[in-house]
Amino acid sequence: MTANIPTLAVYVDYQKVYDKVWHKGLVVKLNRMGIPLGLLKLIISWLNDRRAYVIFGENKSKIFYTHIGLPQGSSLSPYLFIVYHSDLVTCLGAFSSHIFADDLNVLIFPPICRGVKSIIKFLEEEGTKICNKIAYDSKKWKQSVNFSKTIVQVFHSQVQSSVVDIYMEGKKLEVVKEFKYLGLAWTNKMSLKPTIDKTLENIQGTFSKLRWMKRETIPGFTVLICIGWFQLSYDIINQTQAQ
Fold first, then answer.
1. What's the pTM value of the predicted model, to 2 decimals?
2. In this structure, which of 55, 133, 138, 178 has its CB flanked by the most CB atoms within 10 Å?
3. Residues 167, 138 share a domain
4. Using CA atoms, how far apart are residues 30 and 92, in angstroms rounded to an integer?
5. Pfam families from the entry (predicted)?
6. Count of beta carbons in the 10 Å neighbourhood of residue 172
7. pLDDT tens digit string along 127-178?
C-alpha cells in the first residue's frame, strides 16, 4: 500500500475447528515439538477413552467413543488448540500471515517493479496457490475449510478497485470491498471509517437508552463532548491515512 501496490488478503474460515481437533494428529504434533514423554503420556491418557451420547427430544443414542474434539471448559483445551494450529503458517511460504483462534489471514504482496496487469496476474496465481496449500493442509489434519465464508479482499489506493479471481480447489472465492476482521471493519482502501461510524452510532444509541432509563435529558454539553471526541479521532485517523 505504501508503494501504491495492490495487496491481496485471504480470510480463511474453518468449520468448528475446536470440535474437530484430531487426537492422533495432535499427538503427532506434540511429539514433533519435543514435549517431555511423561507429559505427552499424560495428555494422551486425558484424551483417550472419551465417550459421549446424543439426546434429541426424548430420544437418547447409544454411548460411543470420540476421537476428535477437545473437552469444553477445560483450561488445557485452549493450549492444545493453539499447538494444533501453530504450524499452519509454515505451509504459506514467505507471505505474511496471522492466525487468531480459528481465523486465518494471509497477506500476499507482489514485487514492486511490475505493471498493474502483471501484479494482478501474480496475485491471482500466488493467491490460488496459497489457497490450495491451505486446503491440502486442512484435509491432512482433518480441519474443514468453510468455502462459502472464505473471503478475498484487495487493498489498493486506486479509485477503481482491482479485480482478481482466486480459487480454492477449483471453487472461486468471493471478493469483497469491506470485511470485518478481529472486530475492525476494513475497506479496500485500508480505511476504518465503517468501524468509526458504527462506534458513533452505538454511542448515540447508548445515550438514547440512558435518557429513557433515567427519564431525563442528559445535558447536551456532555453529548457534544463525547461526539466531538470521537469525531476528532475520526479526523486524525483519516489524516494519518492520507499521509
1. 0.71
2. 138
3. yes
4. 21
5. RVT_1
6. 12
7. 999 999 999 988 889 888 888 889 998 888 765 666 789 999 999 999 888 8
